[in-house]
Amino acid sequence: MIEIKHRQVEELIEKAIQKISKDEEYRLVSITNKIENFDALQFFEGAKHIEKSRTFWTNSDKDFYLVGIGQVYEILAEESRFTGTKKAWRDILSKALIYNPYESPGTGIVALGGMAFDPKKEPSAIWSNYKQSHFTIPEFLLSVNKDDCYFTVNIQVRKDDLPTQLANEIERVERILFAHSELEIQDLTIQFKNEIAPFEWKNTVKKATEEICQGKAEKIVLAREIRLKFNERASITSVLRKLLETQPNSYIFAFEKGNDCFIGATPERLVKREKEHLLSTCLAGTAPRGKTAEEDKQIGKELLHDPKNRKEHDFVVQMIKQAMEDYCTDLEVPNNPVIYPLRNLQHLYTPVTATLKQGYSIFDIIENLHPTPALGGTPTEESLAFIREHEHMDRGWYGAPIGWLDSNQNGEFAVAIRSALVQGEEASLFAGCGVVKDSDPEAEYEETNIKFLPMLSVLGGQ
Ligand SMILES: C=C(O[C@H]1C=CC=C(C(=O)O)[C@@H]1O)C(=O)O
Predict the structure, then answer these.
(1) Is 0.80 surpassed by the pTM of this model?
(2) Does any domain span residue 327?
(3) Residues 219 and 100 reside in one and the same domain
(4) Residue 87 is part of which domain span?
């Protein structure tokens, strides 16, 4: 049985009520307790019974999980998403009453969210539940950090609230969340698969290579979409479970909004912050996995020395280096990439470490980094203009920063690739690739086919 101190919750609500001034509508109260270990996916599944939107996050080492249920506060900084969210977060923290005796990252008051790839792109109907920028503070948060487990309750406390009643309601929901429910295993069948405009996409790749040859850009990342229809409504818990089983070295995430869920298994870290320590990642340049260990090693070796892939990768390295320089000291970037193996393919990988200068937020870094040439291109503005004009789809949250931050200067953002927007019995899958002057449309098309596999294979495909 998970032991949560309900008398403490009641007392802290009482305290908060006393602090609320006449002109304040409510106070945000955040209470964290260390609890017995509880499985993150079980917790996610438990929330199905209370019909609140759920958020799931795990890092690529799978030793850190966040599961958020419901929302006690939302930040919708549509106009200036980076500075707006940064300011809103600062304001929230300055007023909230936070009871969190633990230093562990991802405990206490945490915001989880994401944003659209390109705010200048006309939004399409499928993304209507996903705002340009949307961060939420959940009502209930389970944080698992290695062998430790924490539970946070976030409450909007009003002057006329009755502490016992509020605490009892919280206790009722907790019982549901921590009940051990059977995890659903579902085998979806794809009834209909619609590749959106594959021939046009290959033509767009060709057009991009021509513009690159004319010197209008150096690299342009082009993405495409597959729309699926299933035999039944997809179970998000079941999809998450399969992703956890099949996708090593990847962040696994799910952000539910209304009836929809944006879900994926991305290998690409944008930036991780632990106090002043930053870690970013250059991930670009791709090859398949080999069928035998020997073949795999050979393909990896060729990838490491392939000029086209090295060039694609180097655009990302140079840009990330430059983007972080103004905000950081001790910037360290190895001279050569190494191989980053995934289940279906392998990438070129260069880690970047740095120290964040005082006074800056993780949002300053994200603003400068997004989109890196792994998702946009080089130069940024020219490649974005090409994507906006020629891609036959709206990327929505695909390819954009997605992640979390806490009140103790920790946070982590990934780039939301290898992802799908699941909408009941349907889903849109997204995948893209870097186009440089000598890209071959057919080969790039095949590369995107492999990049669809992580999501396709857990949604009933091959
Ligand atoms: C745009 C995607 O991948 C990027 C990340 C790693 C390698 C990439 C590449 O080699 O083209 C892409 O830049 C995607 O998976 O949808």
Answers:
(1) yes
(2) yes
(3) no
(4) 6-177
